[in-house]
Structure formats: C-alpha cells, structure tokens
Amino acid sequence: MAGDRGYGIEPEVLQRLAREIKEVHEAGVQVGLVLGGGNIFRGVSASVKGMDRVSADYMGMLATGINSLAVQDALERVGVMTRVMSAITMNQICEPFITRRAKRHLEKGRVVIFACGTGNPYFTTDTAAALRAKEIGAEVILKATKVDGVYDKDPLQFPDAVMFKHLTYMEVLKKKIAVMDATAVSLCMGEKLPIRVFNIAVEGNIPKIIFGEDIGTSVTVEE
Fold first, then answer.
1. Half-sphere exposure (Cβ direction) of 101: Cα atoms closer than 13 Å
2. Architecture of the structural domain at 1-138
3. I need a labelling partner for 39 at 20 to 30 A (CA). Which of 47, 70, 153, 201 fits?
4. What is the mean pLDDT of the chain?
5. Which class would CATH give 139-223?
C-alpha cells in the first residue's frame, strides 16, 4: 500500500492493485481481500515500546479499515463494485461482517474487503485471512509479500537465501518458517486450504497466479 515510501498510502500502488483485481474479477473469479495496516500503524511494534497491547491491536485493526476504504475507492473507480465488511462495527462507513451476507455479495459479483481483522486483540491479520477464507469457502489464500516467495532466510539481508517452491503445513510449523503465523497455518492445515506466497510488488503477479502460472511458494498438505 505504501510503495517505496514505507508509510501511508501510495495512489499508484492502489491503481495497479485495482487493475489487477479487476482483471481477475472480470474473468469470473470471486475475490475477497484482507488488508494489513502496517503502512499506517503496527500494533505489535507499539506494544513492544510500552503501549498497552490491547489498545495497540485495536489501533492496528482500525488502520486496516482505512486501507480497506482506500482499496474500495480504487476498485470502484475502475468499475468494480466492492463492499467493505468490518469485524468492528462502523455503520457509517461499512457493513458489519456477516458470513451469509459476505457470500451473497460474492455471488452477486462484488469484491468483498474484510476489515479490522477478527475484531479481537492478539490475533493477527494472517489469522483473520485464514478465518475469513474458511468462512466464505475460499479455494486458495494468496499471501502478498515484498519478496518472491518463502526463503530459508531473509533474502533482503542474505544474497545466498534459497527460495522454496513448495512446503507442507507441517514443514512450516516445525521449522518455524515465516509464511503466516502459526495459528493461521494451523487453521489452513486443518481445512486443507492451500496458501500461495508471492511478491505483490511485481506487476501482473495476481492474474498470473490465478490463471495458472507457477509463481512464488505453495504451501499444501502434500509432499
């Protein structure tokens, strides 16, 4: 969301994201989005520096609401009808999350953005994504990152880092590989919900994955 600046919302990033989602949407794919809020506020970082963890987490959830409204605006400006559904009630700007209503929006051809995580402190955006994916019956989770996939160590710091093309849920959990947090991975494992980790900064990656290109790292139950 922030682009190269590292903070705030970059309009060019929004526009590119909207174009890619539109391409996928027009191909008949139902799309649900879960956005982080780190470009505005990081709850965990704030709690480490002394802020009350619960307050910090709620502030982080509200930051995801800001991002959700920004993406909704970008999508609707390119002609994609979008609904924001929030785990925290904010009736003036979005709908409360209700599973059946979310499914109905998807059936009617709308993109649904799930804001404010699970609505509870101590649960990450990753866990919210896994939970919402299960609730709406999603076929796959696309986990957007700043690198090309999952590596054995941070590729931004170690040039010799090796990327995994495929991992199992158990490998991720046992080796504590930073794909998603353990709660999210465990939920996906229990439901056999595939995860695809990819670089969101590379233009065109979203439609390429949806249309079958082997991009990034896949996490599934199979060896």
1. 11
2. 3-Layer(aba) Sandwich (3.40)
3. 153
4. 92
5. alpha beta
How far apart CA 141 and CA 134 sit, in angstroms, is: 10
Best CA proximity match to 66, nearest among 36, 96, 103 = 36
Taking the C-alpha atoms of residue 77 and residue 63, their distance in angstroms, rounded to an integer, is: 22
Q: Which of 89, 92, 135, 129 is nearest to 113 (CA)?
A: 129
Count of Cβ atoms closer than 10 Å to residue 7 Cβ: 12
Instruction: Tell me the pTM.
Output: 0.92
Q: In what order do the strands lie in the sheet with 217-220?
A: 141-145, 195-199, 217-220, 166-168
Tally Cβ neighbours within 10 Å of residue 31: 20
- What letter represents residue 99's amino acid? T
Residues 6 or more apart from 207 whose CB is under 8 A from it?
A: 20, 23, 24, 27
pLDDT at position 48 is: 67
* The predicted structure's pLDDT at residue 125: 93
> To 10 degrees, what angle do helices 11-26 and 53-77 make?
60
d(CA 39, CA 44): 13
Q: Is the CB of residue 163 less than 8 Å from the CB of residue 151?
A: yes
**Domain extents for the chain?**
1-138, 139-223
